[in-house]
Amino acid sequence: MRVDVKWSMRTRIKICCIASMEEARLAIRYGADAVGLVGAIGPRKIDDRIIAAIASAVPPPIATFLLTCDSTAQRIAEQVRATGPSTVQIVSHIEPAESEKLVDLLPTTRRVQVIHVEDERALDLIPGYAANAHAFLLDSGRPSLETPEYGGTGRVHDWNVSAEFVRRSPLPVFLAGGLSPSIVGEAIRRVRPFGVDLCSGVRTDGRLDREKLIAFIDAVRCADAGTFYRTPPAL
Q: Long-range contacts for 208-212 (Cβ within 8 Å, ≥24 apart)?
């Protein structure tokens, strides 16, 4: 029997839309491998000074992701230098030439290119970005709209496309888009991503919810172990 060992069997977990050091500590305490800090994107954005404070306080090996919708290498590099994350998550489909410039501008910063899976054309974007990124992240935004959506939609996209993307990608792939404890196990089994990422699925009234966070991480670990997650009974 052939075993797929392209990436580690342990699914990495990124908790996004972290708004404070308290939320970062909570995510890390219960098993997050990375925290996402939203810069200048929609309602979940936080000030660059807060991003910088969290990024400097989070201990290794936890990764800090700055989410940016800037589309030029120069602007992206400026925000990274101002905030100091370990990783920059580029949420717009920037020109591949700008992606190439980032290699020189940010030689020590990990670069994750978001691909918004609207249809099978997402697969065509792999060659243009793969040489200049460290990983991909598949999400359910719609950057082509008059008012672009860059994530946090709570929508699930077509996992068949995502699974094919993972098979074709030479880079690790994170999966986002509408994930929750009840479906993340199935997403991992079908897509086989390197990591999973979510925001709204672990929040209540906009705040990081401890119980939802624990449930999500438990569900991921159950999927890694080949067992099924069962929602704990209400107390």
A: 208/15, 208/18, 208/19, 208/23, 208/26, 208/27, 210/26, 210/30, 212/181
pLDDT digits (tens, 9 = 90+) for 16-29: 999 999 999 999 99
Instruction: Please tell me the distance from the alpha carbon of residue 28 to that of residue 205, in angstroms, as a whole number.
Output: 21
For residue 167, what are its two tokens? 């098979």
Q: From CA 176, how far away is CA 152, in angstroms rounded?
A: 9
pTM: 0.90
Angle, in degrees to the nearest 10, between helices 48-57 and 73-83: 60
What domains does the chain contain, in order, with CATH numbers?
A: 12-224 (3.20.20.70)
How far is it, in rounded angstroms, from Cα 195 to Cα 176? 9
Which H or E run includes 215? helix 210-225
Question: How do residues 150-193 score in pLDDT, each as one tens digit?
Answer: 666 668 899 999 999 999 999 999 999 999 999 999 999 999 99
Instruction: For residues 140 and 175, give the distance between their C-alpha atoms in angstroms, rounded to a whole number.
Output: 10
Per-position DSSP letters for 124-179, written without gaps between them:
GGHHHHHTT-SEEEEE--BTTSSS-B-S-------HHHHHHHHHH-SS-EEE-SS-
Token couple for 189: 């089994």
H-helix or E-strand spanning residue 191: helix 184-191
